[in-house]
């Protein structure tokens, strides 16, 4: 009898159906793009809002992201990443680019937080990404402390290389080397 624990088959089906939708987007299907948007926009908006700290900027970034999805869906490779991981990476990168281009924005105040909708992932999305998250966390844990901290600050908090160099009181070239070597080690770890 099969294990009836976690809904892994459902999570796999959801991941597979999102991968198929992205393949249809690559083929020019506007309906598939609408499906991808409907299923992922809340999560991606949450990522944008967290990094940018401004609702209007996050909305603009989200629009840019789906334009990129339309243009780059053919580059998505389900053998390399889950669809939500790929989309979250697009959201993160676009938000960081906007933040760097427009300067830093202050995060919303506590009073304004009540007005921000809950963009957190639903349970199915959490199950789908849990495996990827666990692998990344385990690989990050294998890095040296300074590489781990620098990569987390750069990729999860959106800090630039110069900001990281100041934070750790090291030359910019040293910071770039830490991150580059750390990313190579992460790639090796994730490839195992």
Strand content: under 5%
Order of helices and strands: HHHHHHHHH
- Radius of gyration using CA atoms only: 18 Å
Quaternary: single chain
Strand runs, count:
0
Question: Care to give the gist of this entry?
Answer:
This protein is an all-alpha fold. It has helices at 8-26, 30-52, 55-72, 83-102, 110-113, 123-142, 145-155, 161-168, 172-191.
What do these coordinates show?
Helices cover 74% and strands 0% of the residues. The chain contains nine helices and no strands. The chain has helices spanning 8-26, 30-52, 55-72, 83-102, 110-113, 123-142, 145-155, 161-168, 172-191. It is mainly alpha-helical. The longest helix has 23 residues, at 30-52. Helix 1 crosses helix 6 (123-142) and helix 2 packs antiparallel against helix 3.
List the keywords.
0% strand, single chain, 74% helix, 9 helices, disordered N terminus, mainly alpha, 192 residues
List the helices and strands and how they pair.
Elements: H1 8-26, H2 30-52, H3 55-72, H4 83-102, H5 110-113, H6 123-142, H7 145-155, H8 161-168, H9 172-191
Helix pairs in contact: 1-2, 1-6, 2-3, 2-4, 3-4, 6-9, 7-9, 8-9
């Amino acid at each position: 009898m099969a294990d009836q624990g976690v809904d892994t088959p459902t999570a796999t089906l959801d991941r597979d159906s999102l991968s198929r939708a992205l393949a249809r987007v690559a083929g020019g299907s506007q309906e598939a793009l609408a499906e991808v948007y409907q299923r992922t926009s809340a999560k991606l908006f949450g990522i944008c809002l967290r990094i940018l700290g401004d609702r209007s900027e996050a909305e603009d970034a989200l629009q840019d992201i789906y334009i990129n999805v339309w243009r780059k869906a053919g580059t998505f490779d389900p053998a390399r990443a889950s669809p939500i991981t790929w989309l979250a990476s697009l959201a993160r990168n676009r938000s960081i680019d906007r933040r760097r281009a427009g300067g830093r924005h202050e995060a919303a105040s506590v009073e304004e937080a009540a007005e921000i909708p809950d963009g957190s992932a639903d349970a199915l999305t959490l199950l789908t990404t849990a495996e990827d998250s666990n692998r990344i966390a385990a690989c990050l844990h294998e890095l040296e402390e300074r590489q781990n901290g620098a990569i987390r600050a750069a990729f999860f908090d959106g800090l630039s290389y110069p900001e990281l160099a100041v934070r750790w009181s090291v030359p910019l070239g040293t910071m770039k080397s830490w991150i580059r070597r750390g990313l190579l080690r992460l790639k090796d770890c994730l490839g195992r």
